[in-house]
Amino acid sequence: MDFVVNEWLPEYFKPSASPQEKLQLQTFLNRFWEKKDRIIVKRPSPFLEKIYRCAKAYQEVPEIVEPLRSFIKLILENSKKCVFIDDVEMNPLPEAVRALLSQPDTNYSSDTYLFESASAIPEKRIIVTTDAKLANQFKDEPWCKVVLLSDFLADY
Question: 11 near 49, Cβ under 8 Å?
């Protein structure tokens, strides 16, 4: 299965992450590693920027940077676990998705990269997030499934 994750993942590596968040990260990474699943990552993207910014910010803190570096080496740099897509590899987003992303008085447009990443998945497009508002906004959208991390882990 291919899917997209948003910036919760790098956030959960940080020392400010709660014990529950760290446990969710560990659970996700263990299960992900055991399966033949892949994450789809747009290049460049806020997800990648946050991963590398976090690794740089915590380079002097071994208990933070070592797991981050392992994630980068074992997953991001592994073509069996991560697929990078560029602008030319993305498919156009359906008009209904664009409309939901551009709702007034929201910041959903900053999540466009997630949907652009998901456009590279031929079917069963899944975006794993911790943003309940985003998941709720797209709960009825048939083009993709935006699922909360806790719900994803319950079935993963």
Answer: no
State mean pLDDT over 45-62.
Answer: 94
Name, in order, each residue with C-beta under 8 angstroms of 2's C-beta and a sequence gap of 6 or more: 37, 38, 39, 40, 83, 120, 121
Q: Which two tokens stand for residue 48?
A: 């990648």
pTM of the complete model beyond 0.90: yes
114, with CB counted inside 10 A (0-12, 13-18, 19+), is buried
Phi and psi angles of residue 3, each rounded to the nearest 5 degrees, phi first: -155, 175
**pLDDT tens-digit map of 96-109:** 999 999 988 888 89
Domains along the chain with CATH numbers: 2-155 (3.40.50)
Q: Residue 133: enclosing H or E segment and its boundaries?
A: helix 132-137
